[in-house]
Every structure is written in structure tokens, then in C-alpha cells.
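Please, structure for the following, as C-alpha cells.
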Amino acid sequence: MNNVEKLDSEIVKKISEKFILEKCEIGDLKEFTYPKVLPIMKYKADKYKVDKLGNMTILKCKMFNLMSLVTVVLTPDLSRNIPFVIIDIVCVRNKYISFFEFFDIHTNNDEAIEKFKEDTLKIKKKYKDLDEHIEKPNWYVPIRAKYSLLKHGNKDKEYEISNMIMECLDNYLLFVSKAKEPEDIVSSRERLTMFIDDLINKGNPSSKPISKALGNEKAKKFFEDVVFYMEPF
């Protein structure tokens, strides 16, 4: 197991030190494989309710010793004016790709969120020597916050990438602990719901094999009830 693969437990530990976590039962959506006849990709999911933050889902995927993926999704419950977050850590042979993505189209600018953006940009500058990861064009790229971090590196950059992720998480959790309510929770919810609907319906490169593994109907349930779950009013 490489250091990147351990990050999910470190993330859970870090969040549990700041907020109360409640693990949720997700039944047969907890583990699945693709393809079913000769499983090459093995998935495992965990879902948590995070007090004062919202929903956290951790999805791990392993493909023999060739590829490992950890995805963490933090979906705000809108009790606070905070961005939606997706963390991706991918190890393909000896190459590491890491995303710490922020989507803030549902938030309103206030003093706390402006300071958070500034602090995140300082972290981004600190890790400027890590290579920027350039994505192919996709529908969500233009609406992703400019202060998001997308980096990649070889084996020798593994710990630096891990440290970057944990530093970003520390900064985010500190911000969440001080954040205020949105100015208009109804409007914020409408905008976040539209974005999540697009995530489910338009998808991304990671969601395609999940739809193949579960089938379209069950995959939609997985995304709605587990990965991108948003607390009802």
C-alpha cells in the first residue's frame, strides 16, 4: 500500500477531530466490481454524516497493482456558506495525480469565504513546483473555482502531494468551523441542486465505469443517495 492509498483514513481521522461523524448504512452499494464476470476494478464506498458540514462520501477503487483511486466528496448541507468539494488522489503505476476541487457557484461572497480563497491560493503558491495537471475540456471545468489545486508527479512527489492534500483539508475545515449561514439558503440550495443534477446526469470520467458496473438506474441511485447526497430541508 502506498502513502496515497492511506489518505482516506487520514482524512476521516482529521475530520473526526473537528466535527462529529456518523457512519451511514448504504447496503449493497458499499462494494461492487466491474466487470462482474472477471472483476478488474473493485470499488468500496463509505458514507458519513458530518455535523455542521453535510455529507461525506469516500470511494476507493483498485485495479490490481496498476491503479488505485481515492475520491472524497464533501456535499454541504447549506447550514454554512461553504463550497462543494471533490478530492481525487490517483496512483497509476508510479504516477500520482491529485485534485482538490472547489465548486462555489451556490455560495455568496462574504469576509470569511474571501479569506478562505486567499489562504487556499497561498497553499497553491507553496506547492507551485508540483506540475500542474491539465485536463481535457469538460462541462464542469469552466465552473470550477480558480483556487482549486490540480497537480501530478512521479513516485518521488508522493509525500509532497499527500502533504498538499492534508494542508488544503486543514485550511478548509478551519474555514468551515467559522463559516456563517448563506444569505439566501433557498437560492443556494437551488443552485447546488442544479449542479449536483449535472454531476449525476452529465457525469465525468470517473462516473462512466460506475454506471457500467451498476447499470444506469442503480448508478443514479448510488450518486443521488450516497456520493452526492444532500440533506433535505
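The CA atoms of residues 80 and 179 lie 6 Å apart. DSSP finds six helices and nine strands in the chain.
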